[in-house]
Amino acid sequence: MTPHLYESLLPKLAHILQLTRHSEGITTPEAKQALLHATNDFKNTLSQAKDLAANLPGGELTLSEQDEVIRMLEAVRDQKRALLSQFAARSISAAVPVSQVDMEVDSTASTPGGS
User: Which UniProt keywords apply (predicted)?
Assistant: First the structure.
């Protein structure tokens, strides 16, 4: 969603008002055409803004329902942070010390092929 769309509404409305209060008013064909163009531009922009607002995800929720969803998500976030903190505080130790692990080394795997 572009904030520019919503920000442009007020200047477009102000332009329409300026055209109607212009010294020549809307008596000339040019003035009528300019007013028609400005009005149509405003109506189209307003229609786009309404469509974007109507299609917002979660837009059907009331303010109290939105607050409840936010509280629930914050609680989930806090639980995950607590679990992560507990996990980070644990000391990690191998079940078998590394010195007791038998490793097999395949000498041919590290030898360049000569044939």
Answer: Activator, Nucleus, Transcription, Transcription regulation
Rounded to an integer, the average pLDDT of 14-35 is 85
Rounded alpha-carbon distances, angstroms, from residue 87 to 82, 83, 90, 92: 9, 6, 5, 10
Q: Which percentage of the chain shows pLDDT scores above 90?
A: 44
Q: What's the burial of 18, exposed, middle or buried (CB within 10 Å: 0-12/13-18/19+)?
A: exposed
Q: Are 65 and 36 in contact (CB under 8 A)?
A: no
Would you say 31 and 21 are in contact if contact means Cβ atoms under 8 Å apart?
A: no
Three-state DSSP state, 59: coil
What tokens appear for 11 in the block? Answer: 């200047």
**Could you give the count of Cα atoms lying within 13 Å of 114 in the half-sphere of its Cβ?**
3
Ordered alpha helix ranges (H), the chain? 3-7, 9-21, 29-54, 63-89
> Of 24, 10, 5, whose CA–CA distance to 33 is shortest?
24
